[in-house]
Amino acid sequence: MNTKFSATGLFLLLAVGTAAAQMASHAPALKPAPQAAASEVMPLVSTPNPVAHVNGIVLTQADLVREEYAIFPYARQHNGLPKELEPEIRQGAMRMMIFEELVYQEAMRRKMTVSPARMQQAETEFRKTFNNPEDYNAFMRSEFHGAQKLLDDKIQRSLLIDSLLRDEVKSKSVVTPAEVRAFYDKNPDRFKVPEAFIFQTISAIAPDNATPDQMKSAQSRAQKTLAQAKATKTNNEFGLLAEKNSEDDYRVMEGQHKSTPVDQLPPQVVQVLRTMKVGSVSNVLEVGNIYTILRLNAHTPQGKQKFEEVRVKLTSDLQQRKTNEVRAAFDQKLRQNARVEEP
Question: What is the pLDDT of residue 42?
Answer without folding.
Answer: 40
